[in-house]
């Protein structure tokens, strides 16, 4: 299934994309959000409903939210592809480098990424996001994929000069409107082997990044196991799994996103996340 969160009228809703239309599950199920539905283990129920119900509204023209608009945690993995480590000049760490992003910084598919007033250094980072499907602590690597509800595209937009104010990344990773997430969540049963997925980032149609998931330094199961060791993972938590080489700030000359640009993150079997860039008003 392709699960979406969206706006209908003044309400935040969730549903299933079927034949380029949306089945509104929020008016047929007792859960207030997609995160709550996942946490209740109701993906099977949602699938049965989607198989029998006609869609309610067109996908085109509907304002999509981040698939999980209200995650309890967004944990991002830095420096997780060898070519990205090399282009940054940083040393490879024994354990994954982690930082957090906050829900308020996120936007959905086709919504503008916002270049803040304070900087001209808004950079792209195309990434695969995973959404946790059930609670767990100290999850074994061998069992970790059983905790994945699904996959989505993520653009971890980074305000580079603010990111490097100190050795801590948080300020450059949390400007409003810089974390693009979507267009939807593809449930894990639709993707037999996520390691074969290819990620491609395009800026104004030009390929800037490309890699397959098996090129990660710390695999998805290892990320889940490591993170869940120090903090319990909950349904709807998001892990953003790292970006490959080719970021704009390390190009010569550097390339940063600007007003009017279009940035796309495409992942095989998942979809294409597309956003334009707007200056903050």
From TrEMBL:
<dbReference type="GO" id="GO:0003824">
    <property type="term" value="F:catalytic activity"/>
</dbReference>
<keyword id="KW-0479">Metal-binding</keyword>
<dbReference type="InterPro" id="IPR011234">
    <property type="entry name" value="Fumarylacetoacetase-like_C"/>
</dbReference>
<protein>
    <submittedName>
        <fullName>2-keto-4-pentenoate hydratase/2-oxohepta-3-ene-1,7-dioic acid hydratase (Catechol pathway)</fullName>
    </submittedName>
</protein>
<dbReference type="InterPro" id="IPR036663">
    <property type="entry name" value="Fumarylacetoacetase_C_sf"/>
</dbReference>
<feature type="domain" description="Fumarylacetoacetase-like C-terminal">
    <location>
        <begin position="73"/>
        <end position="277"/>
    </location>
</feature>
<comment type="similarity">
    <text>Belongs to the FAH family.</text>
</comment>
<dbReference type="InterPro" id="IPR051121">
    <property type="entry name" value="FAH"/>
</dbReference>
<dbReference type="GO" id="GO:0046872">
    <property type="term" value="F:metal ion binding"/>
</dbReference>
<dbReference type="Pfam" id="PF01557">
    <property type="entry name" value="FAA_hydrolase"/>
</dbReference>
<dbReference type="GO" id="GO:0044281">
    <property type="term" value="P:small molecule metabolic process"/>
</dbReference>
